[in-house]
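Notebook entry, structure prediction.
Reason for the run: the old model in the group folder had no record of what sequence produced it. Starting over properly, with the input documented here first.
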Amino acid sequence: QGDWSSDVCSSDLELTQREAELSQEARELAEGLSAARRASADRLTGAVQSELIALAMPNARVEIQIESDHDPSALRGHGADEIRIMMVPHPGAPARPIGKGASGGELSRLALAFEVAMAGDSPTPTMVFDEVDAGVGGAVAVEVGRRLRSEEHTSELQSPCNLVCRLLLEK
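New structure, fully documented this time:
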């Protein structure tokens, strides 16, 4: 019996050590993933901001918030991060989740801005831009049309809009 109990103690100790090693490795991998996400979020935010200016939303600001919890018990299959895309519609307004801080037309223009900013990285097979031309005209409508046209190569477009669709058909 002495041999059996020492084997169990040895196995328990080995398992505890292995658990600690794996927890440390998971924590390090999660930290690396979080750092990569933060760097990508900064680049994406800058690219989307440039698009929003051209899409008649020059005062809107997009924020990608990343909160991390690298405690091994908090890790999930996608890492340790909670990611929120927030929008500040105008200076002085609080950041709100884009689903709560944007109208239908603004959501379509935000989606278009994100799609153009990420073009080529992972094309979406079908994009629907409803009301993408809401509240825009003239030069802004032309810019919306150009961006929609540039998406032709990567996505099937569904855009039940008026002005922009006419501009696309005329060209």
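Summary: The mean pLDDT is 77.
The old model has been moved to the deprecated folder.
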